Amino acid sequence: MADTQPPPNTTAANDAASVPSKERLRTRCCYCLCKTLWIFLVLVIVLVMLVILVLYIIITPRSFRFHVTDASLTQFDYAANSTLRYNLVLNITASNPNKRLKIYYDVVRANAFYGGVRFSTTDVNMPWNSYLQDKKGTNLFSAVFSGQRVVVLDRDEVSEFDEGIKNRVFPIDVMIGFTIRFRLEAFQFGYYYPRGMCKLKVPLTSKGDEVAPFKATKCRIDF
């Protein structure tokens, strides 16, 4: 008779296989912990982004509004030696449309152009609260351009200047550069450098003649 071998103890082998080893348990725990931390981190990031978005929508800075309300041009002479003599005074209103933000005007500088050529630069006079404008506030200030400057005009531009003398009205562009900050309660943030462009039709009143009054002009602000 052939020798018979005892059958293997399959029950014990199955029981041993069904019991997870310590390494497998450790790996599974680490995986679950990492997965939980990752989900928590994603939720925190999403929550922070939602808070930032809501705050941005609520307090997002809005550009101020500028209007030149009056302009007085009492001298605008162009001599044969290409010297332009001028005396121009502007009255300007600045409006802050923000409901929660105040505006600090750190630097406001205006440049005056005729025929695309800059003939004068001046700092704008801003007399209120050390340049701090209240929320939903409207303030007045002025800019004075006075003096003389060598300005080279070609023949067509000289003809346009003579036409301005005849009509007693001159097209003058004023570009205003700003350095501003915003203030929310006790917090100040940001430095912004918007630019304003005011395209003016300014009547010349040097001889006391009756001329059409200056029309208030809105300036375009690139924020």
Query: Termini, distance in Å?
Result: 104 Å
Whole-number mean pLDDT: 82
Radius of gyration from the alpha-carbon trace, in angstroms: 37 Å
- Contiguous runs where pLDDT drops below 50 for at least 5 residues: 15-19
Total of helices: 3
Query: What fraction strand?
Result: 35-45%
Helix percentage = 25-40%
Order of secondary-structure elements: HHEEEEEEHEEEEE
Largest sheet: 7 strands, antiparallel
Report the principal-axis shape. elongated
Total number of beta strands: 11
Oligomer state equals single chain
Q: Structural class of the helices, strands and pairings?
A: alpha+beta
Task: Outline the structure in words.
By secondary structure, the chain is α+β, with helices and mostly antiparallel strands. The chain contains 3 helices and 11 strands; from the N terminus they run H-H-E-E-E-E-E-E-H-E-E-E-E-E. The strands form 2 sheets. Strands 3, 4, 5, 7, 8, 9 and 11 form a 7-stranded antiparallel β-sheet that branches. It starts with 9 loop residues before the first helix and ends with a strand. The relative contact order is 0.16. About 2% of the residues have low confidence. This is Late embryogenesis abundant protein LEA-2 subgroup domain-containing protein. It comes from Vigna mungo (Black gram). One of its GO terms (cellular component) is plasma membrane.
